[in-house]
Amino acid sequence: SSLKTQTTPLTGKKVIVTAGGTRERIDPVRFITNDSSGKMGYALAEELQHRGAIVTLISAPTKLTVPAGVKLISVLTTEDLAEAVTSAFTQADVLVMAAAVADFKPVNSANQKIKKSADNDQMTIELTKTVDILKQVAKLKRPGQITVGFAAETQNLLENARQKIISKQLDLLIANDVSQPGVGFNGDTNQVTILQTDQAPIKTTLADKHTIAKQVVDQISQRVQKEG
Ligand code: CTP
Ligand code: CA
């Protein structure tokens, strides 16, 4: 597109985008994950690349094709993702954390397939919290580095989102109410509210994820421009 030859505030900026749902192993044939398709993250990576950014996509498994010109780092677990993000972040101008990160992982991952037992109709898998990647990144953040988080909520959207902006020290937070039809996980459409520390929330209409990506990237671009 003509944008590729034009200079934008994102031209030459190093941007990390994370996408997909992380996987936490229970045993060799089972894992815990979530409904994330990775579509929103991949759409954002593509749009950022079109605006001239140097994009690294750190992705948990998806069925998607990596956008042309985007560097892919594949990960499985939250721990893998945390390691890849924190190592890439030192060189990055912007981090867009669109991955749906597993909040808990099994305390023990069995080496052999877990068998049913004849004398017990119930089983319990003990879980432990995973590392909060954005909270970890907040401690590494230098002036001028921009971090963008996502929040999938089913209730109290703005209230929960505002708390996440503060606790994760985000510049932007893209919130979606996943209880609404057509919004968030897995579909081709989304409707988001873009929250920023220095301005009123922007609510988009329900649209194709590529259209939403353009609107989100517009805001990221403006923020990069402000940071100089
Ligand atoms: N996130 C993260 N590390 C985690 C969990 C989430 O970096 N262990 C990131 C997500 O990628 C997202 C943002 O934090 O950008 C918010 O994720 P969300 O699941 O909405 O919030 P949580 O902090 O996990 O809180 P909860 O799920 O309890 O609402
Ligand atoms: Ca979570």
Automatic annotation (TrEMBL):
Q: What does the cofactor section's free text say about binding?
A: Binds 1 FMN per subunit.
Q: Which domain of life is it from?
A: Bacteria
Q: Does the keyword Secreted apply?
A: no
- Kindly state which keywords UniProt assigns to this record, in alphabetical order: Decarboxylase, Flavoprotein, FMN, Ligase, Lyase, Magnesium, Metal-binding, Multifunctional enzyme
A single GO molecular-function term is: phosphopantothenoylcysteine decarboxylase activity
Its UniProt entry gives the catalysed reaction(s) as: N-[(R)-4-phosphopantothenoyl]-L-cysteine + H(+) = (R)-4'-phosphopantetheine + CO2; (R)-4'-phosphopantothenate + L-cysteine + CTP = N-[(R)-4-phosphopantothenoyl]-L-cysteine + CMP + diphosphate + H(+)
What this protein is reported to do is described as:
Catalyzes two sequential steps in the biosynthesis of coenzyme A. In the first step cysteine is conjugated to 4'-phosphopantothenate to form 4-phosphopantothenoylcysteine. In the second step the latter compound is decarboxylated to form 4'-phosphopantotheine. Catalyzes two steps in the biosynthesis of coenzyme A. In the first step cysteine is conjugated to 4'-phosphopantothenate to form 4-phosphopantothenoylcysteine, in the latter compound is decarboxylated to form 4'-phosphopantotheine.
Q: What name has this protein been given in UniProt? A: Coenzyme A biosynthesis bifunctional protein CoaBC
Q: Which family does it belong to?
A: In the C-terminal section; belongs to the PPC synthetase family. In the N-terminal section; belongs to the HFCD (homo-oligomeric flavin containing Cys decarboxylase) superfamily.
Q: What is its EC number?
A: 4.1.1.36, 6.3.2.5
Protein's UniProt keywords contain Metal-binding: yes
Q: Where is this region: Phosphopantothenate--cysteine ligase?
A: 15-228
The entry's CTP-binding residues are 103, 113, 150, 164, 168
Q: In which pathway does it act?
A: Cofactor biosynthesis; coenzyme A biosynthesis; CoA from (R)-pantothenate: step 2/5; Cofactor biosynthesis; coenzyme A biosynthesis; CoA from (R)-pantothenate: step 3/5
Cofactor(s) needed by this chain: Mg(2+); FMN
Positions the record marks as coiled coil are none
